[in-house]
Amino acid sequence: MTEHLTVVRHPLVQHKLTIMREKSTSTAVFRQLLREISQLLAYEITRELPMTTKPIETPMEAMDAPTLDGKKLALISILRAGNGLLDGVLELIPSARVGFVGLYRDEETLQPVQYYYKVPEALEDRVVIAVDPMLATGNSSAAAVQLLKDSGAKNIRFLCLLAAPEGVARMKEAHPDVPIVTAALDDGLNDLGYIMPGLGDAGDRMFGTK
Ligand code: URA
Fold it and tell me: What distance in angstroms lies between residue 134's CA and the mean position of ligand 1's atoms?
């Protein structure tokens, strides 16, 4: 991918996102739409995956047919909201390997601290897609991507539902080599770090917590 930021303006993505943003939308509908949107975004982020051909036999004759090249993709969920995006992407790419990164924000230093980290082996040989619905300040996303790089990942993409300009700038500064695919670029962050107009707390909305 060449662009640092791709906003997927497909009508189905935009329509579903509008329903997700509405505060009256139920947890069940929010979850279902997130699953559907994640597949449309995954379609975009996998557009330029490396391809090769392999010889196959159709019922009619032999041919060299296109197929994905290289090791299985790695999908990395940034906990906990990343899991909502992960489910849909996994339906589209069922053979992908899956990892998890858990970070929380230290209340004193305000820096992300790792509490869980488990990723597939041979990250250096895989296309790695990190998923987190909300790219807000970008601090935890940038930290998560750094952990993946420290594990050897060289070809990383970042998939989110909503991005704030602050988060995009932070990622561009820390990881200019990591393309971002999102459904919308919103106006900015409020004082509490929420994306405006946003959709609220993505984790709470998908898991029905408060
Ligand atoms: N995380 C969320 O869930 N929502 C925001 O608006 C920002 C970060």
Answer: 5
